[in-house]
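Changelog note: in this version the structure field was regenerated for every chain. One regenerated record is shown below for reference.
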Amino acid sequence: HGTHVAGTVGGTTVGVARGVTLIAVKVLGCDGSGTAAGVISGIQWTAENARKRGRKSVANMSLGGGYSSVENRAVAAVVDAGVPFAVAAGNEDQNACNVSPASEAKAITVGATYFTGSLGSGQDIRASFSNWGTCVDVLAPGQAIKSAWIGSNSAHNTISGTSMAP
């Protein structure tokens, strides 16, 4: 999942910002488990690292869960420190204002679309899984996204989710 998201952002084959320096902040175990404290620590590390490096930075967080005012405040603090923060809206087809960090007003919350029809006459519509509502700031393609994958330097996979959209 993380490899795919990083490849979408800055991969040499399909990345939208080729040449960018990516820094992974691991907050979950390989099995996807973790703690709220671990996630918040990673969020806080992001702001501190950007300050130490003295370079313009943008943060992306492609995970979420139930509503957490503590997590939302941590994301807001990073934004207040000058680091824009894009977050996945979530994949539960529910109001994004009910989950974190998607509900944080200072975050850029990104929902997912998919393309239907043919080139020139088709349209992007909200993906059926994408969270929605007033907390979603922007929609971006998030269904059937090809990007880097684990296994080799040339491995790719096509997956879907709001994580693929930011």
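Spot check on this record: Residues 36-53 form the longest helix (18 residues). The chain has one domain: 2-164.
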